[in-house]
Design brief:
single chain, alpha+beta, elongated
Length: 87
Amino acid sequence: MERIERGRARMEELEQSRHEAQMELDRMQEMAGSEEITDGELAGLSMLETFDVDRLKALIEKVVVYEEDAMEIVWKVRNPFDSEVSV
C-alpha cells in the first residue's frame, strides 16, 4: 500500500512539473510572438539614419565576430537584406 501511495505522490510531482514547464513554454512563445516585427515596422526602422540600442535589440539576435574582418549577424526577423541583389 505504501508503494502505491509513493507512486501516486511521484505522479502528482511529475504532473506539477509538466504543468509548470508547459506554462513556461507558453510564456516564452508569447514573448517570441510579441517580438515579431511587421514589414512596415521593419521598413520604418531601415529608413532611420541612426539606431538606438532598443531598436538594435529589436532587430538583431546576436553578432558573431570570427576575425578582424569577418562577422555574422543573426537577425530576429527575416534578413532585411535578402531582397537586395549584389552584383
